[in-house]
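Pinned message: reference record for Clathrin heavy chain like 1
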Amino acid sequence: MYEAAKLLYSSVSNFARLASTLVHLGEYQAAVDSSRKANSTRTWKEVCFACVDGQEFRLAQLCGLHIVIHADELEELIHYYQDRGYFEELISLLEAALGLERAHMGMFTELAILYSKFKPQKMPEHLELFWSRVNIPKVLRAAEQAHLWAELVFLYDKYEEYDNAVLTMINHPTDAWREGQFKDVIAKVANVELYYKALQFYLDYKPLLLNDLLLVLAPRLDHTRTVGFFSKDAMQHAAESRDAELAEKLLQWFLEEGKRECFAASLFTCYDLLPPDVVLELAWRHNLVDLAMPYFIQVMREYLSKVDRLDASESLRKREEHVVEPAPLLFDFDGHD
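Predicted structure (tokens):
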């Protein structure tokens, strides 16, 4: 008997119960007006959810603005919209609520999470404006699940997780790498191993910008290790090039720079590109015969193996030549032996 209840609640100014009654009558605008007079969170929620069910989203938003300002009520409201698939309407509600005087971290955080799922194009601007007002760990998880790598780097940077920011840019360079940002963040990392990972990344993907990176990292690098890092890369490049002249020049450069260990290592990295007579001469001239001895032992072993195989092949050929073929049988078809 909603019509009767409407008259009774109106006469006694019980606006909370009047709002409930008006919802059942489908009088949503009047229900919102009564909710405003009742000014109760419970009433606002009841009328808001009824308006959502009735797809009166403008009125639902008016009610929702009185609910989202209460952090402990926000989750239920979000679930109510999401469970019914009204993501656009929920986003509009939270966007309208950001300007409220009582806007709190939960609202900014939940809107960021919704953007990551349904409107990723809005995520960068939202974070740029409100990163200090979101729960960064929660938004980080949402950005990672949505594969928003640039936004993930931005948040790691703001959260001072510089190591993770650098790793994300290295692992997802197409989306996340920005030259200025990378150079700024790499200087702040705690794990020095990332310096060398960054060098390898630039060698592989941004070789023309390597000098710029080295200018940033130079004060922080172990110079001996860095030279070794690049020597190793140079050896690998020479070996993969299959260019004997390049391998020989690299070997001579190591000797000119006094890099004995690199000289020894390159003998095996570029083993099949280096003429043994050249290696012997260089080792003798620079008093490195002892260091090159493992290389010569390997060369000698290979030569002896080849000689043994040739001897075996020659012996087999000679044995085949001395085999006497059996005389063919002749038959006399005239009856004579």
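Pinned by admin. Summary line: The first helix runs from residue 2 to 11.
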